[in-house]
Amino acid sequence: MNRYSVFRLLAEGLGGHAGWRRAWRDPAPKASYDVVIVGGGGHGLASAYYLAKEHGVTNVAVLERGALGLGNTGRNTTIVRSNYLLPENNRFYEKSLRLWEGLEQDLNFNVMMSQRGVLNLCHSDSQRDQFARRGNSMRLAGIDAELLDREQVRAMVPILDFDNARFPIYGGLLQRRGGTARHDAVAWGFARAADSRGVDIIQNCEVTGIRVESGRVLGVDTARGYIAAGKVGIAVAGHTSHVAAMAGLRLPVESHILQAFVTEGLKPVLDCVVTFGAGHFYISQSDKGGLVFGGGLDGYNSYARRGTLPTVEHVWSEGVAMIPLLSRLRVLRQWAGVMDMTFDGSPLICKTPVQGLYLNGGWCYGGFKATPGSGWCFAHTIARDEPHELNAAMTIERFRDGAMIDEKGAGPFPWLH
Amino acid sequence: MHRITCPWCGPRDEIEFHYRGDATVSRPPAGAGAAAFYDYIYTRGNPLGWHLEWWAHAGGCRQWVKVLRNTATHEIKATGKAWDALNKPK
Q1: What are residue B64's DSSP bridge partners?
Q2: Residue among A346, A340, A344, A345 at smallest CA distance from A394
Q3: Is A404 near chain B, with CB under 8 Å?
Q4: Assembly ipTM
Q5: Domain coverage including residue A295
Q6: B3-80: CATH superfamily
Q7: Residue A100 contacts B, CB cutoff 8 Å
Q8: A414: which chain B residues are within 8 Å (Cβ-Cβ)?
Q9: Best interface-test mutation with A: which of B15, B16, B37, B42 has the largest number of A CBs within 10 A?
């Protein structure tokens, strides 16, 4: 691998930047692999990387329909955190956050990990009580959490509307180790690091079928021919349902769209991630100055990668209730991603009823922060043919068995999570 | 923006409606067993394309409207009352 460093940058700068090589190869698919990962987003690439790094499994292909990271990896609001209530969630996301903390050194790639803090605002006494409970649950798991009062929040983020008539700010729950990372760089960094360990990353290679015989996976049909595989892992986010259906699976997943927005650039006004507690709204300021924000789902099944206007209005009105200066800003870009929503709002990293077929999906809209942890756990599950204890509860069977991981307590309605 | 034709009220903006999910699932008989109820509550076809679904006209007549809508394009092909059969285009 062409190692990146400041000295290398200086040397290349003096040489007119003519010596950089491509970051990963562009191999033709081989006839067979030990493991084929379907989906070249952050999760698929991270899975391949940790298969090679942690388990020595290097005869691996990652198959991507288009180009790397153009799905949800490039469509999120880049927030990284582990501030969950339920032990099944917070321990998993904390593992992921710890991997984030060492990711740049591990991958030799600048993912612009910025631990600027994630602050959840509360707007009532009962919500503050609930935040105290969640913070305590986090601290029991060894995760940092601080309950701030109103004046501490004001000192930290002065631009908020503290005396909004309907949603006055009572305080907040702060995770200082949370923050943001550069989403594209995460895909590229994992791709480059996996490639250097021998993983074949094959773009423009859509999977069109999964061959199963006697309950065991044999391989995948693709746009570039049949590829035999000892094991197949699915990591396709919003398209989980119909890729899994190729192997005859019917899942507790619906696809919904989530919109995100970036405003024109402005001088620094917000140096952490802030979320609105009276609705669903989260915002941070990018290094280029634009405010990056999003809200809840549009709320109907869709694969369209674009939203409708009632949600735009709703998200903006939440934002303006929290930060009035937003009303004077213009949005430069708006887009949507397709979310694989499960019926309890928590993910699936598990074996399936088909032997040799593994599933990584159901990320709802928490997928980006999970990228390294998801890849790490999925690699373990594939290599050992059994889950790690961190993802042991993230099964398909939990719905049948009544062991949901319902962080929000919303019940079996995917569009409410 | 979706414009949904309520069979009672006529064409209305989507903001008058609450989405209520897949209209192809139906409650199994009481003795059908846990597997049938698991399928009813939790598993969905989640098609990429034509989807038969419920929209409750909460801001209007409060009836549940059956809608045939394309999840790839947001095109609405047909709407009907709860007992109407809406056929998916070939």
Answers
A1: B56
A2: A346
A3: no
A4: 0.96
A5: 113-176+254-341
A6: Folate-binding superfamily (3.30.2270.10)
A7: no
A8: 21
A9: B42
